[in-house]
Amino acid sequence: MTDTLTNPKLIQGRTGPWEIVMGLEIHAQVASKAKLFSGAAVGFGAGPNEQVSLVDAGFPGMLPTLNRYCVEQAVKTGLGLKAKINNRSQFDRKNYFYPDLPTGYQISQLYFPIVGEGVVEVEAEDGSFFNVGIERLHLEQDAGKLIHDLSPTESYVDLNRAGTALMEIVSKPDLRSPEEAVAYVKKIRTILIYLGTCDGDMEKGNLRADVNVSVRRPGEPFGTRCEIKNVNSFRFISQAIQYEARRQIEILEDGGSIIQETRLFDPVKGETRSMRSKEEANDYRYFPDPDLLPLELEQAWIDEIKASLPELPDEKRRRLMEQYGLSQYDAVVLISEQAKADYFEAAAKGRDAKLVANWVTNELSARLAADGKDFSESPVPAAHIAELVALIEDGTISSKIAKEVFDHVWNGEGSPAEVVEKHGLKQVTDTGAIEKAVDEIIAANPDKAAAVAEKPQAIGWFVGQVMKATGGKANPAAVNDILKAKLGL
Ligand code: ADP
Ligand code: MG
Q1: Mutate to test the pocket of ligand 1, among 170, 220, 275, 284 (most ligand atoms within 8 A of CB)
Q2: What is the DSSP secondary-structure string of 117-170?
Q3: pLDDT digits (tens, 9 = 90+) for 156-199
Q4: Looking at the CA of 113, which ligand is closest?
Q5: Which residue ranges form the domains of the chain, and what is each CATH number?
Q6: Which ligand 1 atom is the nearest neighbour of the CA of 227?
Q7: Entry pTM
Q8: How much distance in Å is there from the Cα of 133 to the middle of ligand 1?
Q9: Shortest-distance ligand to the CA of residue 135
Q10: Is 222 in the pocket of ligand 1 (CB under 6 A)?
């Protein structure tokens, strides 16, 4: 029990604590207009079999031609994962029969992947960081799609996806909790989006993960793993791991052993179930594709790609903290989306950066989320947030009134300065006007004024009354000063 208290990642079983061990294989569709080995278009929403070339359809004698752009995206991604780029890699055929695979094999890279070992820095929920090792990244083709629910008696084949380029990113078994696994996938997704090498759209299946799960007693060697195929949301990844770890712990505690197998996650039942065991696993009879030469990359080209990389999330986080004096928390929230970080920087120029960060990460984020909008689609331009913060900074409006101003700005009533003018929201710093309100309230409430002498904290009631009388526009500091003077505190 003490173990699970000191290490919250451990799971308490009937017979003692267990540790979950996970390694992920993430499949990311390369953001490319054409397929990996043919010129056929890649796109969502085309009619069935409209984006299929003879190569993708597996016609006899058709030769694959490697798409240079896809290779460049894989190299970029490898560099973004701080990984070794292999100057020489090789495409292999992975042979199996399935109706969505007309060639009878998938072209992949088993023995010599384009990208080798790397490392990804991931932020945990408590704000600490942990590293996840990358084993490799290889390029491969996706298969087509079978459609079983259009007819009660027939299945349909759509080959639009066949031959689309995928990057498979294989992690080392470095993950120890469902939260870590989810945080890792989120981080990979963010890096890919920054790089522009994959759009990260999990709903469309453009980013999906095979999750390998095993359990062990703390300190013991790794246990036998099961692989949960094709999990395509953060929530499902977490649910699948939790279910699978529990299932394995129960088997082991009952004296059984884990059979290495491939499993599927059923999101409706929240369970994983067996798809095929290792014994039934296909023998893919991998061999180098005779139609494709080994891929040799010139170092100069790799260096050129490296020089063209955008600023990546970790670097941006460090820079935002340094340049604007932001907390790690604010910086992490801002870099989670590139457009959000860009927006912040556009608004923060010459302003109180912490205040700008607050407006961007709280008020504006919440409004955009409620409308299902991205920062790039914000109806409030960055210049307006900058103006709003400037009005707070120079005392024209209070923070409280700023919320009201923001509402009007959000509704398209103009810039913050225009809204303040139009609705008369300027903070009252004119001490004469505040004094007048204070005098009136004290005169109308002599017993309360007398009571304040014994109970100084009762001044709060007076502050409230003055703010009410001035429509919330009185400068709170001025109100406090004047009240204290008039009440003899
Ligand atoms: P395969 O080709 O059989 O899928 P890989 O070497 O590609 O095997 O490993 C697949 C994934 O399984 C990797 O992400 C790796 O980190 C992970 N993995 C390996 N051993 C274990 C284990 N004992 N428990 C959990 N995950 C593991
Ligand atoms: Mg694998």
Answers
A1: 170
A2: -EEEEEE-TTS-EEEEEEEEEEEEE---EEE-SS-SS--EEE-TTTT-EEEEEE
A3: 999 999 999 999 999 999 999 999 999 999 999 999 999 999 99
A4: 1
A5: 2-305 (no CATH), 311-423 (no CATH), 431-487 (1.10.10)
A6: 12
A7: 0.88
A8: 12
A9: 1
A10: yes
